[in-house]
Amino acid sequence: MTERFRRLNLGNLEIEISIDDPKAYTRPWTVKLRQMLVADTDLLEYYCQENEKDTPHVIGK
After folding, report:
1. Which runs of E-coded beta strand occur in 1-61?
2. How far is CA 12 from CA 2, 15, 52, 53, 57, in A?
3. 9 pairs with which residues across the strands?
4. Per the confidence metrics, is the pTM higher than 0.70?
5. Is 16 helix (H, G, I), strand (E, B) or coil?
6. Mean pLDDT calculated for residue range 21-42
7. CB within 8 A of 56, min separation 6: which ones?
8. Using CB atoms within 10 A of its CB, is residue 13 exposed (0-12), middle (13-18) or buried (19+)?
9. What residue spans define the domains of the chain?
10. Residue 55: its pLDDT value, please?
C-alpha cells in the first residue's frame, strides 16, 4: 500500500491510496480522496465501525 498526500491549494488536500497485492487482488488499484478545510469548525474523530447505524446523529454535533 502506498499513500500520497498532496496539498492542492490552501484549503484542499488530495489523498491517493494505491494497493498492489497480487496474492489478494487480480490487479493493482488506486483510490483518490479529496478533503476540504472547513475553518472555524470542530475537528471530529472518524473511525470505521462495521454496521454503524448512528453516524447521521453524530454529524454536526
Report:
1. 2-9, 12-19, 29-36
2. 20, 10, 28, 29, 26
3. 12
4. no
5. strand
6. 90
7. none
8. middle
9. 2-58
10. 61
Helices vs strands, H then E, count in the chain: 1, 3
Q: Taking a C-beta distance cutoff of 8 angstroms, is the pair 28, 17 a contact?
A: no
> Which contacts (CB < 8 Å, 24+ apart) does range 3-12 have?
8/34, 10/37, 11/36, 11/37, 11/39, 12/36, 12/37
> pLDDT digit string (tens) for 9-25?
988 999 999 999 999 99
Q: What is the DSSP letter of 45?
A: -
42, 60 in Cβ contact below 8 A? Answer: no
Query: What is the structure's pLDDT at 38?
Result: 81
